[in-house]
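Running co-folding for zinc ion.
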Amino acid sequence: MKVTVSRKAHFNAAHRLYRKDWSFEKNDEIFGKCNNPNFHGHNYELIVSVNGEIDQETGYVIDMKVLKDIIKSEVEDAFDHKNLNLEVPEFQDLNPTAENIAVVIYNKMKPKLDANLDLEITLYETPRNFVTYSGK
Ligand SMILES: Nc1nc2c(c(=O)[nH]1)N=C([C@H](O)[C@H](O)COP(=O)(O)OP(=O)(O)OP(=O)(O)O)CN2
Ligand SMILES: [Zn+2]
């Protein structure tokens, strides 16, 4: 019997959407106001979902405290109050779109979980814009 355990978290961060190998005009055409060279910020809301079998001894799929600690070390400590383009190594050469941020979060968290657990990341960039990634 598989059950999904989810935990919400949040971080705020600044970013700029652009490609270093495009002109300012091309970046402006594609990314518009998100290409502001002075950056802009979002209050990101995160839902981390872990799916797996219930351990018959503990009744847990995963201890929520363990999940909380992994989110803190891999996401909050790394991204919160940071400029993603300038301060987070994963985005030195990767555009920090919501899609790419979700994939980076997945790739940081997956190795920290038991291999038999499935992970899904839902990331809200704004209250109306969100993406989901589950490694597929
Ligand atoms: N596919 C994607 N499209 C866009 C992304 C993204 O990550 N993936 N990101 C942005 C910008 O980051 C932009 O800052 C989004 O903010 P905004 O346009 O203000 O968001 P809303 O549309 O939700 O705001 P409204 O209040 O509805 O105007 C753009 N596109
Ligand atoms: Zn943005």
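Result summary
The longest strand covers residues 2-15.
The first helix runs from residue 24 to 31.
Job closed.
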